[in-house]
Amino acid sequence: xxxxxxxxxxxxxxxxxxxxxxxxxxxxxxxxxxxxxxxxxxxxxxxxxxxxxxxxxxxxxxxxxxxxxxxxxxxxxxxxxxxxxxxxxxxxxxxxxxxxxxxxxxxxxxxxxxxxxxxxxxxxxxxxxxxxxxxxxxxxxxxxxxxxxxxxxxxxxxxxxxxxxxxxxxxxxxxxxxxxxxxxxxxxxxxxxxxxxxxxxxxxxxxxxxxxxxxxxxxxxxxxxxxxxxxxxxxxxxxxxxxxxxxxxxxxxxxxxxxxxxxxxxxxxxxxxxxxxxxxxxxxxxxxxxx
Length: 291
What we know:
Oligomer: single chain
CATH topology: DNA primase, PRIM domain
CATH class: Alpha Beta
Mean pLDDT: 84
Number of strands: 18
Helix content: 10-25%
Largest sheet: 7 strands, mixed
C-alpha cells in the first residue's frame, strides 16, 4: 500500500509553447500547468476510456504498478462526462502525486472498456515514439526537420524525449484481415515505423535489435510519462519541451506512409510469427490503410 499522503512542493519547469494563433510563450510554468497542457492536448477530443497509471518507485529503482486494470484507473470521456473532464483527470493525478514515491503516467490511446489490455484499445488521435538514448537524439532532430512534432516531453530521467504527432483523423487500433483471418495492428505498426526511422539497427545477430527508440513503447496499450510529474529514481520532473497548438495535424500517409517497415526478422520476433514464417498481418504495409 502507498504510504500516507504528504505535502509536496512542485517546481517551475521550462517549456516552449506556440499557441493556436501563432503567439509564442517561452519560460517556466508550474508543474501542474505542464500536466494540464499534456493531458489536454492528448485527450481534448477523446471519446472512450482514458487510462491513468499510478505506481510506487521501490528502493531498487523499479516501479510497482498496483492499479493497472482497476476501474479507478480509467476515466470515461464523452457525452455529459466531458464537463470539467480536465479538472477531474488532473485532480486524480494531483491526488496520486500526494503519495510518497508515487509516479504517474497516462495512455495516449483511447479504450473501448476499462482494461489495460491491448484488445481494449479502440483508437488513437496520436502517434508517438520514446527516444531513450542520448545517442539517438541527433537522429530525432533530423527527423523532426521534415516531420515537426506537436508535443515533445523530456522524461524524468532527463534522457531522450517522448515525441507525439497529432493525426488528422482517428486511427483504429486493429482491423480484421478477411483473407488471412488475422488482425492488422495499425497503431503498433505506425509507431514502429517511427521508431525504425529514428533508432539505429544492430544487425549482427539473428534477432536484429533497434537501439535508441523503445519498441515496447510502440505498443498501443502503453503508458507514457506525464509532463509535470516526478521521477523519484532520478529526482527530476518530466516536462514539456515544446507544445505546438498551431501545427496542423498529419494524415497518416504524410507522416508514416513513406517510412520503411521494421526489419522482417524483428517484426517476426516482436509480433510472434512462428516457425520462421513471416506474419502477413504483422507485415502488412500501413499504406494499405491510407492509400
